[in-house]
Amino acid sequence: MPEAEEGTPERIGQTRNMPRSIWKGAISFGLVTIPVKLFSATEEKDISFRQVHPEDGGRIKYKRVCEIDGKEIPYTEIAKGYEMPDGRMVILEAEDFESLPLATTKAVEVVQFVAEEDVDPTYFNKTYFLQADGPGVKPYVLLRDALIKSGQSAVVKVALRSREALALIRPKDGVLLMHTMLWPDELRDGSFAAPPEDVTVSDAEVTMAQSFIDALAGDFNPEDFTDSYREALEALVQSKAEGVPLAEEPEPPKEAEVVDLVAALRASVEAAKKRREEAETAKAM
Length: 285
What we know:
- The strands form 2 sheets. This protein has a 7-stranded mixed beta barrel.
- Among the domains are: 23-43 and 99-185, Ku70, Chain: A, Domain 2 (Beta Barrel), CATH 2.40.290; 195-218 and 260-285.
- The protein contains 5 helices and 9 strands, in the order ββββαββαβββααα.
- A hairpin with a 2-residue loop joins strand 8 and strand 9 (175-181).
- The chain starts with 22 loop residues before the first strand and ends with a helix.
- It is 25% helix and 23% strand.
- By secondary structure, the protein is α+β, with helices and mostly antiparallel strands.
């Protein structure tokens, strides 16, 4: 499998906070080879907590111990094992993974071109940036521009992190993105969540529900939204560090049991219109 990049940025103009590439290989576009590097396109912004002893704040640590001989095993000496149905343990070494007879361990293989909207977003797993490497710049631009003009995306197979995956390559803002995808047998059957077929709603209820949708319809701008839970946690941590209690939030009004859907939706429409008017007023100030 192609090696992960561990060095510092190589190109002029790159900054220290540029992410490191996690994979280096090539896209096979027919008889054209496009050397590329792969970078994660996302990062989690959740607050990270330590497991600690509340009496003294000491961090809780775990040891890797063999269940048979009780010895602590260094991380570098830990191998991967697959337990057979009969209880036997098959040990796999790093060389075993490297010797797998898969073309996708060395290259991203284009297997089909499809319209992006034909792929159910449920399949998407993780998003990466593809960056042209060395002589791959011109064929990279060729693939990007061809995908844009054809309105197609490339379905590929690639081996990442010790497993093979389907992925979708598509152009966006001058860059090729690669979305790794789950296999069909990794998607659960959600039919259990469907409401009973004998439950119906009236035309009036649907019309009022559409009115509520219209009241909140608009262009999607991710920058308009914030992670309120993370912000509240950060405020809580800061208040604990400074020894200052948080201001108490007013209790939200208790929701009444919904009996008349149309009346409830009508009230929701009015509330939505009021919130939108307040938001527009705040932006204008």
